[in-house]
Amino acid sequence: MERRTLIAAGAATLTAAATACKATSDANTPTKSSPRLQTTGTTGTTTPANWSALARDLDGPLVRPGDTAWPTAHQLYNTRFDALKPAAVAYVAHPDDIRTALAYARAHTLHVAIRNGGHSYAGWSSGNGRLVIDVSELNRVRASGNTAVVGAGAKLIDVYRALAAKGVTIPAGSCPTVGVSGLTLGGGHGVVSRAYGLTCDSLTQATLITADGKQLTANARENKDLFWALRGAGNGNFGVVTELHFKTHPAPQAVTAYLSWPWSKAAAVVRAWQEWGPTQPDEIWSSLHLAGSSAGTTTVSVAAFSIGTYGELKNAVDRLADKVGAPASSVSLRRRGYEEAMEIYAGCSSFSTDAQCHLPGSTPGRSPQGALGRETYAARSDFFDRSLSTAGIQTLLKQLKTVRGGSGSIMITALGGAVNRVSPTATAFVHRRSRMLAQYIASWRAGTSGATAQSWLTSAHTAMKPYASGAAYQNYTDPTLKDWRKAYYGDAATRLAKLKKQYDPTRFFTYPQAL
User: Fold this and answer.
1) Phi/psi of residue 104, nearest 5 degrees
2) Residue 470 DSSP one-character state
3) What is the DSSP letter of 441?
4) 425: alpha, beta or left, given left = phi > 0 and alpha = psi -120 to 50?
């Protein structure tokens, strides 16, 4: 899973996580053989920026500071990055628009940022003075047989809905406005990952535009090394991805479960769940959610999702309660259609129209009828290769009793199943032997500094380090990591560095944690 969302489900609250962003092309859009703006050659000289010329040469809209659409065009999902001041946002309409924007950036020595949903935890899908290449218009979703072709700019809620209409799905996250490409290129956890693998495990082909305007296809036969790298290390490193091909999977009726216990049982719940969750049959996913606030409230709950039968999940959660040694104080167990379940996890089940399950606005990727809000938070992550000891559990619970400056939560997702049956060297997503993935989140009121909440986040993450593997999830981008190459990519880091030199030799695509 990729971020977090708290979802109302009747009287219960389901806890889930969501995802991140990037690009796609429309096969029916005519393309040109070369970009219409050229670099100044090899002299290293540049010409003054002429934004009007770029606007004329793009078929998609170019939005600049002062334009009517700028208040939403410059925003990312997280309000803490509202102070960033990109130079412009180019909503590319097709691959040739991407070539044009890249050529313009090269000619004027501009840094670019690639954006889809704008969910980068570090704000790196924007940046001061950067030309943002937003791929939201590349959002077509087509499915036939067991294959889906998805524009890289599609948002997860739209992918789920389009595929569910065909009776199929891909394993993905739950945050509805996350872009499918960012999620996929960094791995992609979701509620069916134990059954179907990561999002990147269902990827069969990707198309991208490199810094010099070339279009490359990467799959198991063509540009195989690039295909390997894109599955786990593809975000912003090698080019602008335009289109993704996926193997699809059945989207059967699902069963959701939610259980909560009083905080006095928290240690028993953690101890029981960490042995229960990763050992369930593949079709059962679950997460443990611990939350605290500066007001002193603390909660412990478990959310579960299954594409198996109602009876199987009921028996499984009953076994969990037996391991805890106390019945849950709140229990919800319900059959749901697959699309319905995804809309509940997305927080969209109460909306009367599909358009409402988007951020409000008139720019591509948003909807004038959008009813979703943005959030203010910071996050860190850890992989755990083994269960927590008694000391580890006590350290974990202590963190939720010391939250300051807002609210804090720690969500731990059960791994195993199809995720761990892939070799760590098969893709650039190397975290294939871990038992659990934890996400630490601090949230605070928009417009305030959040310094106290972020201090809690740092303390909580540091306190758990002795029990964690040292690895971190690249889709939960953490700008504070010192040795991020090893944390994200492990033994794949050396090979990835060589591929970066091969496919982006001038390091045109760069940001603080670029390869």
Assistant:
1) -65, -45
2) S
3) E
4) alpha
pLDDT block averages, 10 residues each, the chain of length 515: 34 35 30 35 55 97 97 97 98 98 97 97 97 98 97 97 96 96 97 98 98 98 98 97 98 97 98 98 98 96 98 98 96 96 94 96 97 97 98 98 96 98 98 98 96 98 98 97 97 98 98 97
How far apart CA 300 and CA 287 sit, in angstroms, is 11
- Residues 6 or more apart from 274 whose CB is under 8 A from it? 288, 387, 388, 412, 435, 436
Looking at residue 141, its pLDDT comes to 98
Q: Tell me what pLDDT residue 183 has.
A: 98
Evaluate whether 473 touches 383 at the Cβ level (below 8 Å). yes
Cα–Cα dist 352/345, whole Å? 16
Q: What is the DSSP string of 228-282?
A: HHHHHH-TTTS-EEEEEEEE-EE---EEEEEEEE-GGGHHHHHHHHHHHGGGS-T
pLDDT of residue 46: 53
List the Cα angle 340/344/345 in 5-degree steps. Answer: 120
The three state secondary structure string of 26-66 is CCCCCCCCCCCCCCCCCCCCCCCCCHHHHHHHCCCCEECCC
- Res 47: pLDDT: 63
Domain boundaries, given as residue ranges, for the chain: 5-14+253-345+365-490
Tokens of 58: 């793009």
The region, left, alpha or beta by phi > 0 then psi within -120 to 50, assigned to residue 446 is beta
Tokens of 485: 């190459």
Report which residue type is found at 91. Y
Q: Determine the pLDDT at residue 24.
A: 27
H/E stretch holding 25 reads none
Task: Report whether 171 contacts 152 (CB < 8 A).
Answer: no
Token pair for 371: 């009813």
CA 270 – CA 263 distance, rounded (Å): 11
Q: Would you call 499 helix, strand, or coil by DSSP?
A: helix
Among the listed residues 140, 226, 244, 228, the one whose alpha carbon sits nearest the alpha carbon of residue 182: 244
Q: Between the CA of residue 376 and those of 5, 122, 345, 412, 474, what are the distances in Å? A: 12, 12, 19, 21, 20
**Which CATH architecture does the domain made up of 5-14+253-345+365-490 adopt?**
3-Layer(aba) Sandwich (3.40)
Q: Which of 456, 455, 414 is nearest to 436 (CA)?
A: 414
CA distances for 136 relative to 22, 132, 337, angstroms: 8, 12, 28
